[in-house]
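For consistency, the fold was encoded as tokens, which produced the following:
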Amino acid sequence: MRVFVLLIVLLSATLLGSALSTLPSAQPVSSGLLGQRTQAACSFLRSLYNPSLEMVRGTPNSSVYYVASDNLLVEKAISSCDLTTSKAINHSISSCCGSGNDRMHEALLGAKIHLPINTATVYTVANSTTGKLFQGVYPTTAGGNYTVLWEVHNATGTFPDCTYADVTVYTALELRLEGNSTGARHEMDCLTAMFDGRGMVDEAYKDGSAMEHGIYQTYKLALYIYAQQKISGTYFYAEENLFRLQGPDGGFHTGYDQIGTYAGTQENTETTSIAMIAISKLSTNQLWRFSIPLWVIYLFAAWAVIGVGVVVIVLVLEGKKRKRSFQSTTENQS
């Protein structure tokens, strides 16, 4: 019996070694590094902030300000590093557009959205060149002519399921919020199929416009990282790819090719905000992280049950053996 127990232990150790050998080597998570990345991104977003409009422009050289998704996401992204600016953006959004939700991106902030997700309509909130001012702010005060737009996903068309990585993430987040774990897992399976180890290969990557075809979109990678943690509760090393896309000024480049080169792509507000939100979800307390496949967990749970059963049997048999030995000794002494 003891030999049998020893065989179980040896077999379990062999299986554990085999399973772990298939996983990537664990790497330490540096809370200091995460803090540096976040602060750099925060500085980049602050550099795009126009205090007269209390909004962040889309790109460094742009005069266009999006209520959503840009400022809706910036408000959340910088809330931990610049609460004053975050509150100012919230005030600016509410002055024209209520919560500023666009029926898609707020899923990233824990708000419910309608499924399936509709295509977008773009509303012009302000255009100073035509005299339509935002909160009465003149171009001379704002630093030049400006446009404020609000993109809302309320058009008649809908996005097909599991076609675009970003839409798939937002759908998965909503399904999780609804308690539909089966539907959320389906969307996560779609995302896993899209991820090729470098980025998200969705319809836009395969057959999109000239600026999308063959180019991985950084914000989609960030969304996948976020969804993995939020929905699947797992960590993996794609965030290292994400960090490489952060420029010296803290902004995240919008895209990259198969060798990780982001030359020719610019940094913008949406990508940087989503990257910040994804980074903020990385665990700084879990010093070592790697994903363990479910089959490994189930296997060792089964072996644990078997092991406990074997130990119980051994103890019972040993007890009976000692009892018989004691009885035999007593009888002989009699």
Summary: The longest strand covers residues 121-127. The chain has two domains: 1-23+299-328, 24-291. The chain has twelve helices and nine strands.
